């Protein structure tokens, strides 16, 4: 069967069975607030990066139960007819606040705050978590890689190492983390990302000689292209590449190294290029890179990096481990009450949180402050008193999605926002070693 345009079944069955039971008990229309957050950061992360918000809003626009979905649910007896009647007319009508896409986050940070009835809030759980858990993990890995690259461009080349749809999402998340382009054409088309790529070893091998392969590539793409020079002998490959470009009347744009000791090869190739007068020809490297490998290459004369497997799999952290929990709910008396789990190692903090970040006299962030308050006015007053920069923005108001919060321009703004947010963090945030979160999280309760 063809894939559905609707996103409503990108969910877990228990969300629909909870809805069904809540409709029967009368709790479905109770007002509530859910928060999406991480209890802790992975040991190898000093901060996380918010990514996927734009994709959530795009998916929320299509979160409807069409006739095909309703019929499928009916045929399989997933929920009752009463629940199906509710779902037939479902559109999310609540409010969503969140950290700006690209913002850094820490343990407890409410990346999303979802307000509405229990019925509509609970239907959002899997959609929100599946997008943010993936995209935040990739963006966080991308940010560490661009930190390690010290300003040298990083390019996403991970499409062949991931699920075909996940690769598109990963490319977008990588841009938020500071990457400059992607090899994935669907991601480039959908999100307005710069597309990159030239040729693989197979292109060289299919020709009778390396010289013929290089000449053919240059004839199509021009002398500014990047030639892969390690199919056979690297030294001869560099010589052939430079000469092929000059025979076409120009200087070669770049050579790519994809195997062997990349540090030693980069120095050798740079020396060879300079000796041949190809001083403007750049060197790009690939070959299973991660942030640690990129950092190790920092002293080598390399101009850019192509990153694949480790990027799209979160570089050892494939999920951000975010959770979605109710923190306030309407009681039978009509009043709003804070609620929290008391489970060992999985406890939560009841009450709605408003987030802010405190910056010290030196201009660096010193703590994440989460104000627990009954009203927005009280919370904002407390954040102002503390001197904290508010972190949350409204993304959905009464079911209406902010049109500026998704699309190509939103993606570029998210990358710019991330760089500003990351630059605000203290030095320890940039370290690649294991350690505590870069700044502590403090809860403040306003009565």
List keywords for this structure.
alpha/beta; 447 residues; 16 helices; 19% strand; six-stranded parallel beta sheet; seven-stranded antiparallel beta sheet
Written description of the protein model:
With 447 residues, this protein is an alpha/beta fold. It has helices at residues 13-25, 53-61, 67-75, 81-88, 118-123, 125-149, 164-176, 185-191, 201-206, 210-221, 234-247, 262-275, 291-296, 309-312, 376-386, 408-423; strands spanning 31-38, 48-49, 95-99, 104-105, 112-117, 154-156, 181-182, 226-228, 254-257, 282-285, 304-307, 322-330, 336-338, 353-359, 365-372, 388-390, 392-397, 400-401, 441-445. It contains 16 helices and 19 strands. It is globular. The N and C termini lie far apart (55 Å).
